[in-house]
Structures are given as C-alpha cells and as structure tokens.
## 1
Amino acid sequence: MEVPAGAEILIDGTKTLQTGSVRNFVSPPPDPARKYSYEITCRWHKDGRPVEVTRQVSVRANAWTSVDFTRSDPGPETIPAPKIVRVSGN
C-alpha cells in the first residue's frame, strides 16, 4: 500500500511496524473458496492536523491487492499475483 510520509498503519486494529511510503502486508494463506476482508486504517498529519482514513479491503487467494492512501479515490485494485518461474542450470 502507498501511504503518506510518517503514516501509522493498523490492520484489523493492530499497528504495523513498517515505515516508509510503501508498505507490504502478507496475509496468511487464504482458502481459494472464501472471500476475506481486512480493515486498514491509515493515520497521519496534514497541515498540522490529524487525518485518519479507514478502508475495508477485500482480498482473495493468488492475487495482490494495492491500496493507495495518498489519493482521495479509495478503490483498492486487485492485481494478479506474479508467476514464479524457476530456471535450472546445466
């Protein structure tokens, strides 16, 4: 997810320890037959005032979901997970 500088992130009420403008969260392996949702809260200061934005983010197996808290449009975007290709040497 992309967040404003110095932001604090909570996932389902638990504060994350990562810092920086790009944060990654890896969920436990989901069951492909089920839908999952996380409540993600982003807190930061803008022009000296506190800002808090909370979004419900749906996730599914074998996909990445991108969330951008730096834009006013809250829509999370689901991105297919990259395929891992292993190449053997001779």
## 2
Amino acid sequence: MNLLILRLLMGVLIAFFAGKLVSKIKLPAILGWLLTGMILGPHAFGLISDKLLDASWYQIILNIFESVMGLMMDLCQYSRHKNSNFYAVFLKASSSC
C-alpha cells in the first residue's frame, strides 16, 4: 500500500514538472499533465498500476478533485458564447451572469 501511494505521489510530481516544462514553450500546462498520465499510466510504463486506480480511497479522492475543479469553473466567462449549446444547457438555467 505504501508503495502505491509513493508511486502516485511520484507521478503527480513528475506531472507537475512536465506541466511547467510544457508551459515554458507557450502551451497549456494541462497538456504536460495529460501526456505524463498517458506515459506513466497502466498502459505504457505502468508506474501507476490498475490496482491503485481501482482502490476505493483513490476513487473518493478523484471524486472530490473533480467536484473542486467543477466549482472552480467560472461559468460567467462562457456567457459571451450565447449561441452555443453550452450556453443553452448550463447558463440559461442559472441566469445569474
């Protein structure tokens, strides 16, 4: 179990630095994070194994992380696209923008 947590932390650290490296060439940092996840994931080098991804505590942390990221989205910045489907689905119901 400790080895799985260590591997996860090492993967997050590598992804952080990959994001910094990618942002130096004027690309979004999330591109570095995604590439790191694809390379270190269970289908490439296998640093982060399927056993870790299936753990119940990992799923709970993942759900919390997804919720926090959703709350950080500023939906009002998307209001300039009033003709898009995004506006029709998400912003029209909460017309606080």
